[in-house]
Design a protein that fits this description.
The chain is an alpha/beta fold. It folds into two domains: 3-322, NAD(P)-binding Rossmann-like Domain (Rossmann fold), CATH 3.40.50.720; 342-494, 2-Layer Sandwich (Alpha-D-Glucose-1,6-Bisphosphate, Chain A, domain 4). It is built from 17 helices and 19 strands. Strands 3-2-1-4-5-6-11 form a seven-stranded parallel beta sheet, with helices on both faces. A six-stranded antiparallel beta sheet has the order 14-19-18-17-16-15. The longest helix has 25 residues, at 470-494.
């Protein structure tokens, strides 16, 4: 970069405040880091700022807001020049189309009032002349509603995103690695044009520098047009795995979603929406983006190799289920009156230093399980999956560390005090709200571990739920605390 162009670049960054929505999501998490690395003045909109704030740099501002609540956008938009709209409701339950519609209208109108110069939106590929799935139809409607605000909009439409932690990649990875024989339904034969997360992020970043007031719609994709079957074969080849793939004539989206929920990190609700979208061809028909941007998208095999390398380094910046909306409704019990908190509190004293005692807690869940009665945890996860919940397949966002906002099976990490305290909020289907907390207090070679399960029931149904499970809680919670203590003692002895 020449001195002149470098100065112009720095001036552009100084002059433009960027608002990023969806920063807790997969694409938003990657874009967040790219914007921070480029030193942009950055403000992030989040429904729960306390979950996002630990993930951002000190210079990034995080403000509370919800596109469904119009008034909350006014202060968030103040002074903003460019806004990224990465909000969508793939993970939500209920009328996600109506929510998407309201959010887009609110965002566009407030952006217009605030004097925002440009909105950059990521939507979905799909031929509008066909009868699209509700998800794809909603994604394209959102672009139209944003343009209706009269704020210039750059809309990108993309197909499958390939990258470490992306929804599609995690699904493919799990299917290929866990199944020696795979049934291939018709929807897996439909063509798409996958794009690497690195290329997608590059398109979004380059769109920042567009200076005219024209509306643009860019279809973007990678170098190859392939089916899900092709992608699975490429992944299998990349990890030297032989999988027998057998075509089947019929496998409905509902049955496919349950199957995906049992085998992959996807849960039934997400799986069903994904399959409903996959049955449509999502390839690029207009390649104007290749002429407008200096980006040469890579092919599927290279994208998969890149994703595998990042997975192996355990440094994925974001994962699709990190989004706080991935559990379903933002606030499913809004307006409900909660009953008195029901609490199961237990403590145990052990002759172990606090740091060692906290180690088993820090590694709880995921592949290592919950230390006691794991079969009951799995049964609860399966029931949750059947009723449209997240189930247990998400595992841990990060295998060896705890990050606020990350996931542990059907829990969300809400608060961490290193070596002292962990609070998890429940995201399984419940007639109320629940938390599971661990606290370690002590000094020297002696400490107390406190384990607390908290439930706020909704009405009589919530109380019936809690008390009907009371005998099982005695097994699960008592066994878990005892096993954590035994693990900590064993770790302490092994370090001597």
């Amino acid at each position: 970069m020449t001195t002149t162009s470098k100065n112009n670049h720095e001036e552009f960054i100084e002059e433009n405040l960027v608002l990023l929505t969806g920063a807790t999501g997969y694409v938003g998490g990657r874009l967040l880091k790219a914007l921070e690395e480029s030193k942009f003045q950055l403000r992030c909109l989040a429904r729960r700022p306390e979950l996002l704030s630990p993930r951002v740099s000190p210079n990034t501002e995080v403000v509370k807001g919800d596109a469904l609540e119009r008034s909350s956008l006014i202060s968030a938009m103040h002074g903003v020049n460019i806004a990224f709209y990465l909000i969508h409701s793939m993970g939500s339950a209920g009328s996600f189309e109506e929510n998407d519609r309201i959010a887009a209208i609110n965002f566009g109108e407030i952006a217009k009032e605030a004097g925002v110069k440009r909105i950059i939106y990521l939507g979905g590929l799909g031929n509008a002349q066909e009868v699209l799935s509700s998800h794809l139809r909603s994604r394209q409607e959102v672009g139209s509603l944003l343009r209706a605000s009269k704020v210039p909009v750059i809309e990108f439409r993309a197909s499958i995103v390939i990258g470490s932690g992306s929804l599609s990649f995690e699904m493919i990875k799990s299917l290929v690695e866990r199944l020696p024989i795979m049934l291939i339904p018709k929807w897996a034969l439909m063509y798409a044009q996958p794009i690497a997360i690195e290329d997608l992020t590059s398109y979004l970043m380059e769109a920042l520098y567009n200076r005219d007031n024209t509306n643009y719609l860019f279809e973007i994709g990678g170098f190859d047009q392939v089916s899900y079957l092709d992608i699975m074969r490429i992944y299998a080849k990349s990890i030297n795995k032989r999988v027998l793939m057998i075509p089947v004539p019929v496998l409905t989206p509902y049955l496919s979603s349950l199957w995906l929920g049992l085998v992959t990190p996807l849960y039934a609700r997400i799986g069903r929406k994904l399959v409903e979208s996959i049955v449509h061809s999502t390839v690029v028909h207009d390649d104007i983006a290749l002429r407008k941007f200096k980006i040469k998208p890579i092919g599927v095999e290279e994208a998969i190799q890149s994703a595998i390398k990042l997975e192996n380094r355990e440094s994925a910046v974001s994962r699709w289920y990190d989004s706080t909306s991935s559990s379903g409704e933002t606030n499913p019990y809004k307006g409900y009156k909660f009953g008195e908190r029901l609490i199961d509190a237990r403590t145990i004293n052990i002759n172990v230093n606090p740091k060692t005692a906290f180690d088993p807690i820090q590694n709880i869940g995921g592949e290592k399980g919950w230390y006691a009665w794991n079969i009951l945890w799995q049964i609860r996860g399966f029931i949750d999956l059947l009723v449209g919940g997240v189930g247990m397949r998400r595992g841990r966002s990060h295998k060896d560390k705890l990050i606020v906002g990350g996931t542990i099976d059907f829990w969300r990490i809400e608060k961490i005090v290193p070596n002292k305290f962990l609070s998890l909020s429940a995201e399984m289907k419940l007639p109320g709200r629940a938390w599971l907390e661990f606290e370690v207090v002590g000094q020297g070679n002696s400490c107390t571990i406190k384990q607390t399960a908290i439930f706020e029931p909704v009405g009589i149904l919530g109380k019936i739920y809690w008390y009907s499970l009371y005998p099982l809680h005695q097994l699960i919670f008592a066994g878990m605390l005892q096993a954590i203590a035994h693990k900590a003692i064993a770790l302490s002895k092994s370090s001597l």
